[in-house]
């Protein structure tokens, strides 16, 4: 009895094998694309935060460039001029 090859089944199996191979070839690029999109979203959020910080620093710089602001900042830190006398008051009652 001769074994007959069923070419229709061989063709279907080959087509299925090629389909699975194509799906396997697309999995890694798809994962890479998704990871890249997530990283880009993270970087956009980081850039937005840095832009907000930059705007805050620019406002601070313009405030410090105004006349008298350096003296105000120095007094806030407890500094006095050379011709002034510093006093320390202790044991004040609590408010």
Fold blueprint:
Layout lengths: L6 H59 L3 H8 L19
Structure commentary:
With 95 residues, the protein is mainly α. The protein has one domain (8-76). It has helices spanning 7-65, 69-76. The protein is rod-shaped, with a radius of gyration of 37 Å. The termini are far apart.
Summarize the structure.
71% of the residues lie in helices and 0% in strands. It has 95 residues and is mainly alpha-helical.
Helix content: over 70%
Mean pLDDT, to the nearest integer, reads 91
β-sheet strand percentage: under 5%
Tally the beta strands: 0
Structural class comes to mainly alpha
Rg calc: 37 Å
Number of structurally distinct domains: 1
One letter per element, helices H and strands E, the order comes to: HH
State the end-to-end distance: 111 Å
Outline the biggest β-sheet: none
| H/I helix tally | 2
- Sum up the overall morphology in one term: rod-shaped
Query: From the structure provided, what is the oligomeric state, counting identical versus distinct chains?
Result: single chain
Low-confidence stretches: none
List keywords for this structure.
about 100 residues; mainly alpha; 2 helices; about 0% strand; rod-shaped
